[in-house]
Design goal:
Helix content is about 40%, strand content about 15%. It is of the alpha/beta class. The chain has two domains: about 5-15 and about 260-360, Aspartate Aminotransferase, domain 1; about 20-255, Aspartate Aminotransferase, domain 2 (3-Layer(aba) Sandwich). β4 (about 110-115) and β5 (about 120-125) form a beta hairpin. The radius of gyration is 20 Å and the shape is globular. It binds pyridoxal-5'-phosphate. Pyridoxal-5'-phosphate binds near residues 96, 142, 174 and 213.
Length: about 375
C-alpha cells in the first residue's frame, strides 16, 4: 500500500550518529575484518562495563559480558542455556512479542502474570508470586516496558527480587529502553539490588539508544559461570559478532552522547504531543507512558477487538499500528503505536485515528 504511516515497528527513524558510522568505516579500512573473541572485543566489553557503572553495577568485562548480534540473540542465548523442557518462565501480560514464542520453541512454558491496567501497567506482584510453581526457573522483566512504557520503581524491583531470592529463580532483565525515560524518572537495574547480580541476566542493545537496529549489536551481563555456558552456544551459533560493528559500538558508548540526548528530547516531544492528542479523542484513553517510545492507548470503548481495529486503521486510513492482543490477552482493547515519525506525521496519524474512531462508533 502507498502512503501508509507506519507506526507498527519500533525501528527509529533517526540516522545512526555520524561519529559511529565513521568509526565503522575506519575500523574496516584498518583491518577489523577478522573474527573477534567469542564474547566480543575486550575494548567493547570494557566500554560496556564502564557504561553500566551509571546504573550502579560493577561488571567484570573479562568474565561477565557477552556481546551479541542484537539483544534478541542475547535473549535467545540466555533462555536456551538455562531452560529445559517443561520449565516455566514468568512473563508479564502484556509483554514483548518475542518472549512467548522463544520460550515455547525451547520446550519450556511461558506463565503470564498480570500487569495492572489501573496502575499504569505496573506488575501485580502478589499475582506474580502466586504463579510460581516448583517448575519455575526464571522471571523475565522489561523496564522500560515494550509495549506499555511502564518503568519499574525501586519498590517494584525489590518485590521481584524478593520473590526471586525466596524461590531461587533467575531474573532476566530486558533493559534496552533504559535511555528513554520521561520526566524526572531514572532507570534502575534489578541487578544492582543486594544479592541480585549473581541471579540476574541483563539484556541490552545498541538498536534503540543509538538508532542502530540494522547493525545488529547488543549484549548481556551475567554471572561468570553462566557466561561460560552461554559462550559454548554463542561459539557454535555465531562465533562472534561482526568486528567492525563492535568497533562502532565502542565509539557509540564512549561518546559524544549529544546525539542520544537530542533523540531523547525529540521522542519525549512526540510522546507528549501524541499522548495528549489521543487522550482528547472521545472513547480513547491514552495516559503518558513513563518511558520507551511507544503509546498503548485504550480503544476498548470503540472496538472490543484490537485486531479488527488495527485492520480497519490500515485498510481504511492507511495507518499501521500493532494490535494490543498481540502482546498477550490483557493487551486486548489497546493498540501500540511506535513513535518513529516526526510530530507533523504523528499529527496526521492522530487525525486518521480520530476519523476512524468517530466512524467506528457510529457503525
Ligand atoms: C523489549 C525488546 N527487547 C529486545 C528487542 C530486540 O532488539 P535488538 O535485537 O534489535 O537488540 C526489542 C526490539 O524491538 C524489544 O522491544
Amino acid at each position: 500500500m502507498k502512503d501508509v504511516i507506519k507506526l507498527s515497528s519500533g525501528d527509529p527513524d533517526f540516522a545512526t550518529p555520524p561519529h559511529i558510522i565513521e568509526a565503522a568505516h575506519r575500523a574496516l579500512s584498518e583491518g577489523a575484518t577478522h573474527y573477534t573473541p567469542t564474547s566480543g572485543l575486550p575494548r567493547l566489553k570494557e566500554a560496556i562495563s564502564e557504561y553500566y557503572r551509571k546504573f550502579d553495577l560493577n561488571v567484570d568485562p573479562n568474565a561477565e559480558v557477552i556481546v551479541t548480534p542484537g539483544s534478541q540473540q542475547a535473549l535467545y542465548l540466555t533462555l536456551a542455556s538455562v531452560l529445559g523442557p517443561g520449565d516455566e518462565v514468568l512473563i508479564s501480560d502484556p509483554s514483548y512479542t518475542v518472549y512467548e514464542p522463544t520460550i515455547k520453541f525451547l520446550g519450556a512454558r511461558p506463565v503470564r502474570f498480570p500487569l495492572d491496567r489501573e496502575n499504569n501497567f505496573h506488575p501485580d506482584l502478589d499475582a506474580m508470586e502466586a504463579k510460581v510453581s516448583d517448575r519455575t526457573k526464571m522471571i523475565l522483566i522489561c523496564t522500560p516496558n515494550n509495549p506499555t512504557g511502564t518503568v519499574l520503581s525501586k519498590t517494584d524491583l525489590e518485590a521481584v527480587a524478593q520473590v526471586a531470592r525466596e524461590h531461587d529463580l533467575l531474573v532476566v532483565s530486558d533493559e534496552i529502553y533504559s535511555e528513554f525515560i520521561w520526566g524526572d524518572g531514572r532507570h534502575l537495574s534489578i541487578a544492582a539490588l543486594p544479592g541480585m547480580k549473581e541471579r540476574t541476566v541483563v539484556i541490552v542493545s545498541f538498536s534503540k539508544t543509538f538508532a542502530m537496529t540494522g547493525w545488529r549489536l547488543g549484549y548481556l551481563i551475567a554471572d561468570g559461570a553462566l557466561v561460560k555456558q552461554m559462550l559454548k552456544l554463542q561459539g557454535n551459533m555465531v562465533l562472534c559478532p561482526a568486528a567492525f560493528v563492535q568497533m562502532a559500538g565502542v565509539a557509540a558508548l564512549t561518546g559524544p552522547w549529544e546525539p542520544v540526548k537530542a533523540m531523547r528530547r525529540e521522542y519525549e516531544d512526540r510522546v507528549n504531543f501524541l499522548a495528549g492528542r489521543l487522550d482528547e479523542i472521545d472513547g480513547v484513553s491514552c495516559p503518558k507512558p513513563e518511558g520507551a517510545f511507544y503509546l498503548f492507548p485504550d480503544i476498548s470503548q470503540v472496538c472490543t477487538s484490537s485486531r479488527k481495529f488495527c485492520d480497519g486503521l490500515l485498510e481504511e486510513r492507511k495507518l499501521a499500528a500493532t494490535a494490543g492482543v498481540h502482546f498477550g490477552p490483557l493487551g486486548e482493547g489497546h493498540i501500540r503505536l511506535a513513535l518513529v515519525r516526526p510530530v507533523d506525521v504523528l499529527s496526521e496519524a492522530a487525525d486518521r485515528i480520530e476519523s476512524h474512531v468517530k466512524e467506528s462508533r457510529t457503525r
